[in-house]
Write a structure and sequence with these properties.
This protein is α/β, with parallel strands linked by helices. Helices cover 39% and strands 15% of the residues. Helix 8 crosses helix 9. It is globular.
Length: 382
């Protein structure tokens, strides 16, 4: 989400406004539901909750190209998603034998532009565009292109895979359609097709607005999953706005509010005080799922059942390893792998005290591709 915060333009929506469907939704009834959508959602959720899926990523590719150097230009090292992928890149670089330098853009456009300029000046073998839209640094991208330095993005553009404009060898991210869809499916499945739902979004960010639109579209496949309200709270304002909006929602809807979906986990960190003040139980309704990166604090809330029941996390370490593999393909003249990790749902039942989603198998697979000893990776699990 950090990348779009830097480029978001006003969309005409009132800052911090709430979209309230009219007329008011009917009360919940025992006959509400959607058998077809419920069956489909249930099957999708079971797949996404699998705690030990088999590796379905690349198993072949170029052998390791020696002596390369990478610079990771980070949107901000305080962003847990960025920091998680940095750790993965560093781990993988040690295995493949490359050097890595991280330059922190400190979360501001000027800081990121300065960091990218420094990265290009260093003339590394490759540059990671970490968590920001490269259109913010178009001049630096042009300089890197002129110097024939390949760029690999993490959450740099909306879609995974190669990008022509802006020029990226590939972009690493899950698919927003999959993340939004499985979040809504979880609500449908968890509620048995009978829910009163609030969606939290930031309509000033096109990517976030698109995600919440997709969430609403999937919820609409089940008439029993009724949209009570869509709360438009800009991400920079979540700490100041979310508690009062949650209090208002509780006053308006009471027990009819059973579930929530947010485009980022941070909304539920800020909702907790208001829910606690209203004497709601941390493990009770409204049951909340975050369609965000799945940062450590979200895992802690899920595991402790404190006002968040589930999160749809990114596999941050795996994505860092994938970035190194994509560079190795670029240096070898091979195409990008095209791999996109399937979505995962973390709950208290399957998170096993983890603070991140770290799927099995990828370390061994990449070591084999690069020509390393896969058995060494057993000691590298976290």
């Amino acid at each position: 989400m950090a990348l779009v915060l830097l480029l978001a333009a006003p969309t005409g929506c009132e800052r911090g406004s709430s979209t309230r469907p009219a007329p008011p939704p009917p009360p919940r009834t025992a006959t509400a539901g959607c058998p077809g959508a419920l069956a489909r959602a249930g099957a999708a959720v079971r797949r996404a909750q699998s705690a030990d899926p088999a590796w379905n990523g690349p198993t072949t590719g170029p052998r390791a190209v020696p002596g390369k150097s990478l610079v990771y230009v980070a949107q901000s090292m305080t962003n847990p998603g960025v920091a998680g992928t940095v750790a993965g890149v560093r781990d993988a670089a040690r295995v493949i034998g490359w050097s890595v330098r991280v330059i922190d853009g400190q979360g501001t456009p000027s800081g990121i532009q300065a960091a990218f300029s420094q990265a290009v000046t260093l003339r590394p073998s490759g540059i990671v565009v970490g968590g920001f839209d490269p259109r913010l640094t178009s001049r630096q991208v042009d300089r890197a292109d002129a110097a024939r330095i390949p760029l690999v993005g993490w959450h740099a553009v909306a879609a995974p895979g190669p990008s022509a404009r802006p020029r990226l060898f590939t972009n690493i991210t899950t698919k927003v359609e999959d993340v939004a869809g499985i979040s809504a499916d979880w609500v449908i499945d968890h509620s048995g097709g009978d829910a009163g739902v609030v969606v939290f979004t930031d309509a000033s960010i096109p990517f976030a607005r698109h995600k919440s639109d997709l969430i609403k579209k999937r919820l609409a496949t089940c008439p029993g999953a009724r949209l009570l309200a869509e709360e438009n709270i800009p991400l920079p304002d979540t700490s100041s706005r979310t508690p009062q909006e949650v209090s208002s929602l509780l006053a308006r809807f009471g027990d009819a509010w059973t579930h929530s979906v947010a485009i980022n986990d941070v909304y539920f960190a800020d909702a907790a005080p208001a829910l606690r003040a209203a004497r709601r139980k941390g493990g009770g309704a409204p049951y909340n799922i975050g369609a965000g990166d799945g940062d450590p604090s979200a895992f802690e809330r899920v595991e402790s059942r404190q006002f968040q029941a589930a999160t749809v996390p990114e596999p941050l370490s795996q994505q860092g390893w994938q970035a190194v593999d994509e560079f190795n393909r670029a240096f070898s003249g091979a195409p990008a792998s095209g791999y996109v990790m399937p979505v995962h749902i973390a709950t208290a039942a399957n998170s096993d005290d983890a603070t991140s989603w770290d799927p099995p198998g990828y370390r061994e697979a990449y070591r084999r591709i690069w020509g390393g000893d896969a058995s060494e990776s057993k000691g590298n699990r976290r």
